[in-house]
TrEMBL record:
CDD domains: PSAT_like
Residue numbers carrying N6-(pyridoxal phosphate)lysine: K195
GO cellular component, one term: cytoplasm
UniProt name for this protein: Phosphoserine aminotransferase
Pathway: Amino-acid biosynthesis; L-serine biosynthesis; L-serine from 3-phospho-D-glycerate: step 2/3
Family: Belongs to the class-V pyridoxal-phosphate-dependent aminotransferase family. SerC subfamily.
SUPFAM superfamilies: PLP-dependent transferases (SSF53383)
Gene3D superfamilies listed in its UniProt record: Aspartate Aminotransferase, domain 1, Type I PLP-dependent aspartate aminotransferase-like (Major domain)
Catalytic activity: 4-(phosphooxy)-L-threonine + 2-oxoglutarate = (R)-3-hydroxy-2-oxo-4-phosphooxybutanoate + L-glutamate; O-phospho-L-serine + 2-oxoglutarate = 3-phosphooxypyruvate + L-glutamate
Length: 360
């Protein structure tokens, strides 16, 4: 079987060029006589790999000098705890709940302090982004937290909330490097790489210098302190060395295509193909408010569970895999991250049209 069109929400499709390139270097990286997998993370050759990866993501996102880039472990769920442990000086934080991942972060933070949901779209199954222009942000809140792109529900913040001067912390796992962003608007931007950037096992956190301190909650383990990782240039302990190397290759791939502005154009084109079809279809329909639609995750339904299951099964038999919606919402979801080629979306829509005709 050849490569399929993989619409998984994560781990997800990676650029074929990157995989081929990594395969070519598998036995002998750059004359070292070994795979990056086999290499000491303290070696000069590895140091160059991680330093170059950092430099490339700094270039791509135009990260200001007063922010550190940290390659961390423990997935998104560890950030749910690490953020409050490092930032809760007053033990207060305000969360905007736009989906399951924001809610999980909110629940985790509650273990450490007084945490309030200042807005939520749970009333309509997270199918929209609430108005965040004038929220009851508390005077002494340590930060305001969002999940910028909601992987499960397929919504995205198109404008950032008015945090009334408080530091904004954003989980960008499912929209990382999909378009340009202004890092200076955030205190912390973090994302798991397993959707748009690389193999699962790495979280990239971009943290403003003044938030990196020893003044953390009592009992915070060394591994969960941003300062420990910043002081050690992400090499405090053995990092997921190979995975970071692949991330570095993806950064170069994005650069070769013209950077994040070019990515945005590509992603808008791809998403438009699918959304335009959904808006014209008699069988399929999108599930979220149009103005809040994500460019990355596109959920849709037929309204009939059996028809959904039939579609998913036939799609898979035709090489379009992982289209089942998240287990908590059902229906379908096409994740169309950076590495999904336009052709993959065009072919999916072609298949959907055919399915619609046959099942009218
Ligand atoms: N945040 C978002 C937006 C996600 O989509 C996910 C997982 O899919 C997570 C957090 C959780 O990440 P992890 O499984 O790495 O803990």
């Amino acid at each position: 079987m050849g490569r399929v069109y993989n619409f998984s929400a994560g781990p997800a499709v990676l650029p074929e060029e990157v995989l081929r390139d990594a395969a070519a270097e598998m036995l002998d990286y750059n004359g070292s006589g070994m795979s990056v997998m086999e290499m000491s993370h303290r070696s000069k050759v590895y140091e160059n790999i991680i330093e170059e990866a950092e430099k490339d993501i700094r270039d791509l996102l135009n990260i200001p000098d007063n922010y550190k880039v940290l390659f961390l472990q423990g997935g998104g769920h560890t950030q749910f705890a690490m953020v409050p442990m490092n930032l809760m000086k007053n033990r207060k934080a305000d969360y905007i709940i736009t989906g399951q991942w924001a809610k999980k972060a909110f629940q985790e933070a509650k273990m450490y302090g007084d945490v309030v949901a200042v807005a939520s779209s749970e009333d309509e199954t997270y199918s929209y982004i609430p108005d965040c222009s004038d929220l009851p942000i508390r005077e002494d809140a340590d930060y305001v937290y969002i999940c910028e792109n909601n992987t499960i529900y397929g919504t995205k913040f198109k404008t950032l909330p008015n945090t009334k001067g408080k530091d904004l912390v954003a989980d960008v796992s499912s929209c990382f490097l999909s378009e340009p962003m202004d890092i200076s608007k955030y205190g912390i931007v973090w994302g798991g790489v397993q959707k748009n950037i690389g193999p699962a096992g790495v979280v990239i956190a971009i943290v403003r210098d003044d938030l990196i301190t020893d003044d953390v909650l009592e009992g915070t383990p060394s591994m969960l302190r941003y300062k420990v990782h910043a002081d050690n240039k992400s090499l405090y302990n053995t990092p997921p060395a190979y995975n970071i190397y692949i991330c570095g290759k993806v950064f170069k791939w994005i650069k070769s295509l013209g950077g994040l502005s070019a990515m945005k154009v590509r992603n808008e084109e791809k998403a438009k193909i699918l959304y335009d079809f959904l808006d014209s279809s008699k069988l399929f329909k999108g599930t979220v408010r149009k103005e809040d639609r994500s460019l990355m995750n596109v959920p849709f339904i037929t309204g009939d569970k059996e028809m959904d299951a039939k579609f998913i099964k036939e799609a898979e038999a035709n090489g379009f895999v992982n289209l089942k919606g998240h287990r908590s919402v059902g229906g379908m979801r096409a994740s169309i991250y950076n590495a999904m080629p336009k052709e993959g979306v065009e072919k999916l829509v072609e298949f959907m049209k055919k399915f619609e005709k046959e099942n009218a």
